[in-house]
Design a protein that fits this description.
Elements (H helix, E strand, L loop, with lengths): L6 E6 L6 E8 L4 E8 L2 E7 L10 E5 L10 E2 L6 H4 L1 E8 L2 E8 L9 E10 L2 E3 L6 E3 L6 E3 L3 E5 L4 E3 L3 E4 L7 E4 L8 E9 L3 E11 L5 E7 L5 E5 L2 E14 L2 E8 L8 E8 L2
Antiparallel strand pairs: 1-2, 3-4, 4-5, 5-6, 7-8, 8-9, 9-10, 11-12, 13-23, 14-17, 15-16, 17-22, 18-21, 18-23, 19-20, 19-22
Length: 275
C-alpha cells in the first residue's frame, strides 16, 4: 500500500506539538527513516514498504536539509534485503556510524532480533557489508574486524544427568546437545575451552529452541557464579545468544544447566574468540 504523503521533513513548533512548515517531501513511499549529518552532508536512510518482509533499504543525500535531495540508492549488497533487516537507527560513534537494524519475525514477534553493523560514510556515499563479529572503539569510533573464533561442538561436550544428543540437520555437525535441565537435570560441560589471554570476552552460544516462547539456561565458567542467559525461539537453523564471561589464559570449563525442572535450549556449539 502506497502512502499518499510519502516521507517528509517538517519543522515543529517550539513545544513540539504542531507543524510550523513542511521542509521537504519525498514522493517515494519510504518508512523507518533515520537521518545523520557528516561533513556538511545530510543522509536520510529508510525502507521501502514491503510489510513485515525486509527489502534493500536505501538512502538519499543533500547539503541543505530543505533540499534538493538526491535520488534513493542502496547501501548494502543488492539483493541482500539489507541483511534481512530494516533501518531502525544510525548511531554516531566518534567520527563514524553504526547501522542498527530490526529483524522482524511476524509469526512470532518474540523471535524478532537486531543487527548492528559498521556503516561507512565517504563524501555523499554510504556503504555497508555484513559481518559476523567486529570490534568498535567507543572513544575514537574506529571499527575493525573481530578475531577468529574457536568452535566447540555440543556433541563433543560431556553430557550428564538427562542430557543427550539430538539430531539437528541445521547444526554444524548435524547434532546438538539436548535435554538440558528438565526432571533429570541435564547438564552440558565444555572442557578445554581455550583462550590466548586472561580476559573478559563475548562468547556466542549457537542453539535451537523450538518453543514459541524463550528458554533460559544457567551458565557457569570455571566454577564461578552462574549467569542466566535467555534463548529466544529458533528452529531449523541455529540462532545465537551471547555470554559475556571472564576466561583464563589456557584451558577453561563452561557448564550449561537449568534449575527448577525447566528446559534449556539444544546447544549446537560455542564460538569463542581466539584472542
Amino acid at each position: 500500500m502506497k502512502r499518499a504523503n510519502g516521507l517528509r521533513i517538517n519543522l515543529l513548533s517550539d513545544d513540539y506539538t504542531a507543524v510550523k512548515q513542511s521542509t521537504y517531501l519525498w514522493k517515494t513511499a519510504v518508512e523507518s527513516p533515520a537521518m545523520i549529518k557528516k561533513n556538511g552532508v545530510y543522509f536520510m536512510f529508510g525502507s521501502s514498504l514491503t510489510g513485515w518482509n525486509p527489502n534493500d533499504n536505501k538512502y538519499s543525500t543533500a547539503t541543505n536539509i530543505a533540499g534538493p535531495w538526491s535520488s534513493w540508492k542502496t547501501f548494502a549488497d543488492v539483493g541482500s534485503n539489507t541483511y534481512a533487516s530494516q533501518t531502525n537507527y544510525i548511531l554516531p560513534v566518534g567520527n563514524n556510524f553504526i547501522y542498527m537494524g530490526d529483524r522482524w519475525i511476524s509469526s512470532n514477534l518474540m523471535r524478532s532480533t537486531y543487527i548492528w553493523l559498521p556503516l561507512t560514510i565517504s563524501g555523499t556515499t554510504a556503504s555497508m557489508k555484513n559481518a559476523v563479529n567486529w570490534v568498535v572503539d567507543a572513544t575514537s569510533g574506529s571499527m575493525t574486524s573481530g578475531p577468529a573464533e574457536n568452535s566447540y561442538e555440543g556433541e563433543s561436550a560431556a553430557l550428564s544427568g538427562g542430557a543427550k544428543l539430538v539430531s539437528c540437520s541445521g547444526c554444524s555437525g548435524s547434532n546438538a546437545a539436548g535435554y538440558i535441565g528438565g526432571t533429570n537435570s541435564g547438564i552440558v560441560t565444555f572442557s578445554n575451552v581455550q583462550s590466548s589471554a586472561t580476559t573478559r570476552t563475548s562468547i556466542r552460544i549457537k542453539y535451537l529452541n523450538g518453543d514459541s516462547s524463550q528458554r533460559f539456561a544457567d551458565v557457569s565458567v570455571n566454577g564461578g557464579a552462574t549467569q542466566r542467559v535467555a534463548f529466544v525461539p529458533a528452529s531449523g537453523d541455529p540462532n545465537s545468544s551471547v555470554l559475556n564471561a571472564n576466561l583464563n589464559a589456557g584451558s577453561n570449563t563452561i557448564k550449561i544447566s537449568t534449575s527448577g525442572g525447566s528446559w534449556g535450549p539444544d546447544i549446537d556449539r560455542l564460538m569463542v574468540p581466539q584472542s
